[in-house]
Write a structure and sequence with these properties.
This protein is an alpha+beta fold and about 650 residues long. It has 3 domains: about 5-225, Heat Shock Protein 90, CATH 3.30.565; about 235-390, 2-Layer Sandwich (Ribosomal Protein S5, domain 2); about 415-540 and about 580-605, Rossmann fold (3-Layer(aba) Sandwich), CATH 3.40.50. The chain is about 40% helix and about 20% strand. The chain has 22 helices and 24 strands. The strands form 5 sheets. Strands 1, 2, 3, 4, 5, 6, 7, 8 and 9 form a 9-stranded mixed sheet that branches. Strand 8 and strand 9 form a beta hairpin. Helix 14 (about 435-445) packs across helix 20 and helix 21 runs antiparallel to helix 22. The longest helix is centred in the middle third of the chain and has 27 residues, at about 375-400. The chain is globular. The relative contact order is 0.07. The model is unreliable at about 5-20, about 110-125, about 400-410 and about 635-645 (pLDDT under 50). Bound molecules: 3-[3-(1H-pyrrolo[2,3-b]pyridin-5-yl)phenyl]propanoic acid. 3-[3-(1H-pyrrolo[2,3-b]pyridin-5-yl)phenyl]propanoic acid binds near residues 55 and 111.
């Protein structure tokens, strides 16, 4: 702290009084960083990059920048270089210091002081690059402009000196910002390549034609990827549906750039049963949708129902529902809103009520026009929608005929469930166990006060390949849904959840990973809040038992085993046995290694990135058997890790 005050004094001598108020502003960012960037964990660390890149994206939105290069530097610094106009290098008329310094030290200044351009890239927090400066041990800005190269350096937001002219430039223009996050503020300081890559790919889809290059310079062999999609959100939909079978060749791509709220939609139907929405406001992913998605759905239902009216008689008697219309639909909706209001705990939902009506009428009109000009597409879509309606009605009739009360509505607990005695969901755990025999051991080894066991016979239905009605007709899934208690889909209510932890416990082999994936897919598609709220876990049963004399140790994988063996000095009295499956373990062993909260390991499953997760699930669960089997055999562990960031 003493050092900083020194620095601030020096700055005071060098610069005018106004810059000091600025530095006091940045001090507030250092005192309460979470207020400005959300958190100081790994998310906050990455947030710094989003803020800096947003400035370059603004330059691109204004039409002056076509390439942004992002490097992860040794020491986990980040350098973002663009080929925009470059931050002005002259003295700022109002602030009386260089404009670079104003941009880098004034809260909310960013690039936002030429009012003419319509800046909408500003992220969820949109706090500006000065916050990044305040939270970095070192930040260096280099500008190429007016034929010169000009540089200024900062430490924790404080200028280390005035801007310096480094000489002639090569004639190009642009801005480069290099920064090193302050390790006394961030609890994590290591950048995750995949997190950055995913976001830049997404940005490249949303900003068609903009080139983004990501390079990891931390390793000797630099890894680099360039993302650039001239087709924009249309290519986004193609990417998401890469492992699905489309119903027509080209996604429908509708662009309305000139309305009150610039809007772009891409939509594509596949032969599957899921609906898949990805929505964005000002290039920010609104994971929980909001009024723009509502408007989209309203328009889609209205327009498709209208065209359905005009279908030839015969099929006309079936009433189609909004769900039928969205079966097998993948859509990306991107809108620009100058004053967005984000709602919900995680601020991932657009709240502006005026947007629903705007999207419903603007997009609705455009879609109607498109359908009028493309009758073939209408026919394909209506065929699909009617098939969905027919299947739904048939399933309904079958259920009524069987005169069996819908188990899902009756809410009775399944007979196979060995429930726990506690009724306090906060302390209760449900183990979903592969096979009846392992289920038996688990029942004996559990703590019956708070641990419940539900054995699954074999594999559950692959929900990527079946309609909702078929999924709900299988006994295994009904058991699962009734045991968990919180309902499904839009009716999934966490208040009704009967267990705080839902633990998938399978053998550590290929079949086990397949069952894990099937269950995770089911939760992801139909009980998403369970995953988002962190209720889903994977049990980690050991693979080996090492016995030295009478002392037994359990080891989780080959690595653990090799390490333990290497540590042993005397290898004579050692036996290593391999567990083939959970069923081989005694109830005591199972409790001690896998179930007892004091001794076990659980892996929590959550989804950092919905697009990647959707792709992985649709690929794993899709049509092509061979790549799937290969992928599961070699990669199952990694996939789960990815989802588990
Ligand atoms: C202020 C004014 C202008 C551009 C910028 C800032 C600017 C900031 C950043 C940050 C990263 N890259 C950037 N590129 C530009 C307008 C300049 C003009 O009118 O020439």
């Amino acid at each position: 702290m003493a050092e900083e005050t020194e620095e601030m004094k020096k700055a005071e001598e060098d610069y005018s009084g106004s810059s000091i108020t600025v530095l006091e502003g940045l001090e507030a960012v250092r005192v309460r960083p979470a207020m400005y960037i959300g958190s100081t964990d790994i998310r906050g660390l990455h947030h710094l990059v989003w803020e800096v890149v947003d400035n370059s994206v603004d330059e691109a939105l204004a039409g002056f920048c076509s390439h942004i290069e992002i490097s992860i530097l040794p020491g986990n610094g980040i350098r973002v270089t663009d080929n925009g106009r470059g931050i002005p290098t002259d003295i700022h008329p109002k602030e009386k210091v260089g404009t670079i310094q104003v941009v880098m030290t004034k809260l909310h200044a960013g690039g936002k002081f030429n009012n003419s351009s319509y800046k909408v890239s500003a992220g969820l927090h949109g706090v500006g690059v000065s916050c990044v400066n305040a939270l970095s041990n070192k930040l260096i800005v280099t500008v190429r402009r007016n034929g010169r190269v000009v540089q200024q350096e900062f430490a924790r937001g404080v200028p280390c000196g005035p801007q310096v002219d480094l000489g002639e430039s090569d004639g190009t223009t642009g801005t480069s910002v290099e920064f090193y996050p302050d390790d006394t503020i961030f609890s994590e300081t290591v950048y995750v390549y995949d997190t950055l890559a995913t976001r830049f790919r997404e940005l490249a889809f949303l900003m068609s034609g903009l080139r983004l290059t990501l390079t990891d310079e931390r390793t000797e062999e630099k890894h680099s990827e360039t993302f650039c999609y001239p087709g924009g959100v249309s290519e986004f939909v193609r990417f998401v549906d890469e492992h699905r079978t489309p119903l027509f060749q080209e996604p429908i791509h509708l662009v309305l750039p000139d309305g009150q709220y610039p809007l772009e939609v891409a939509m594509w139907y596949n032969d599957g049963y899921q609906e898949n929405f990805f929505s964005f406001v000002n290039n920010v992913n609104t994971y929980d949708g909001g009024t723009h998605v509502t408007g989209f759905k309203t328009a889609l239902t209205r327009v498709i129902s209208k065209f359905a009216q005009e279908m030839p008689k015969g099929k006309k008697d079936i009433t189609i529902t909004a769900d039928d219309i969205r079966e097998g639909l993948t859509a990306v909706i991107a809108i620009k809103v100058s004053q967005p209001q984000f709602e919900g705990q995680t601020k991932r939902k657009l709240g502006n009520s005026e947007i629903a009506g705007y999207v419903a009428s603007a997009f609705g009109a455009k879609l109607e026009e498109y359908f009028q000009e493309n009758p073939a597409a209408v026919k394909t879509i209506l065929d699909k929608v009617y098939n969905a309606a027919v299947a739904r009605e048939a399933a309904h009739k079958a259920r009524t005929l069987a005169r069996r009360k819908n188990v899902l509505e009756s809410g009775g607990l399944p007979g196979k469930l060995a429930d726990c005695s506690s009724r306090d969901p906060k302390e209760c755990e449900l183990f979903i166990v592969e096979g009846d025999s392992a289920g038996g051991s688990a029942k004996m080894g559990r703590n019956r006060e708070f641990q419940a066991i539900l054995p699954l016979r074999g594999k559950i239905l692959n929900v990527e390949k079946a309609s909702l009605h078929r999924v709900l007709d299988t006994e295994e899934i009904q058991n699962l849904v009734n045991a968990i208690g919180c309902g499904l889909g839009t009716e999934c209510k966490l208040e009704k959840l009967r267990y705080n932890k839902i633990v998938i416990m399978t053998d550590a082999d290929v079949d086990g990973s397949h069952i894990q994936t099937l269950l995770l897919t089911f939760f992801f598609r139909y009980m998403r809040p369970l995953i988002d709220d962190g209720h889903v876990f994977l049990a980690m049963p050991p693979l080996f038992k090492l016995k030295v004399g009478t002392k037994e140790t359990y080891l989780f994988d080959e690595n653990d085993k090799d390490e333990a063996m290497a540590k042993l000095e005397d290898k004579k009295n050692v036996t290593v046995s391999r567990f083939k499956g959970l069923g081989e373990m005694s109830p005591e062993q199972l409790s001690e290694t896998t179930m007892d909260p004091a001794k076990r390991f659980l892996k929590q499953c959550y989804v950092e990135d919905a697009v990647a997760a959707d792709q992985i699930f649709s690929m794993l669960m899709g049509e092509d058997v061979e790549p799937r089997r290969k992928f599961i055999e070699s990669n199952a562990y990694k996939v789960l890790n990815d989802l588990d960031v």
